């Protein structure tokens, strides 16, 4: 069975499309930040193009009986904008399709914040503390720590 990924923007969609199987891992790319659905009516949501297309892609316009997928993954960047988009999507599902969450159909792809690497090893880190630990644990090979590649991760990487 397929597992769709809901992503923010074409860059994330491109990364997932390039590394995934389009037959079993379809990608639904949002255009910009989704509408804040808190307190809105179902009519307003149905008139919003992004949420209308998302409901059609998941086949839930008329309820969950037609849900096309057993697992749906929200994949956003590990930054402030990504977290905001993730919360807006969670708000949408909680308000209008809470059974998607109750029945364990919705998942969050946790992406790393940092990549720490030297010539022989790479570690993906999910916090500043993990980054500092990786810097001290990875063996210093061929160059000092000050010359290591420590960077923010902006794309999706396997964990």
CATH architecture of the largest domain: 3-Layer(aba) Sandwich
Count up the domains. Answer: 2
What would you report as the Rg, rounded to the nearest angstrom?
19 Å
Assigned CATH class of the largest domain:
Alpha Beta
Uncertain runs with pLDDT below 50, 5 residues or more? 154-159
Distance between the termini: 22 Å
Give the beta-strand count.
7
CATH topology of the largest domain: Rossmann fold
Ordered list of secondary-structure elements with their pairings:
Layout: E1 5-8, H1 9-19, E2 27-30, H2 42-47, H3 49-58, E3 72-75, H4 80-96, H5 98-102, E4 106-108, E5 114-117, E6 122-125, H6 128-137, E7 149-152
Parallel strand pairs: 1-2, 1-3, 3-4
Antiparallel strand pairs: 5-6, 5-7
Provide structural commentary.
With 159 residues, this protein is an alpha/beta fold. The protein has two domains: 5-108, Rossmann fold, CATH 3.40.50.670; 114-152, no CATH class. It is 37% helix and 17% strand. The chain contains six helices and seven strands, in the order βαβααβααβββαβ. The chain has helices at residues 9-19, 42-47, 49-58, 80-96, 98-102, 128-137, and strands spanning 5-8, 27-30, 72-75, 106-108, 114-117, 122-125, 149-152. The strands form two sheets. Strands 2-1-3-4 form a four-stranded parallel beta sheet, with helices on both faces. β1 (5-8), α1 (9-19) and β2 form a beta-alpha-beta unit. The model is unreliable at 154-159 (pLDDT under 50).
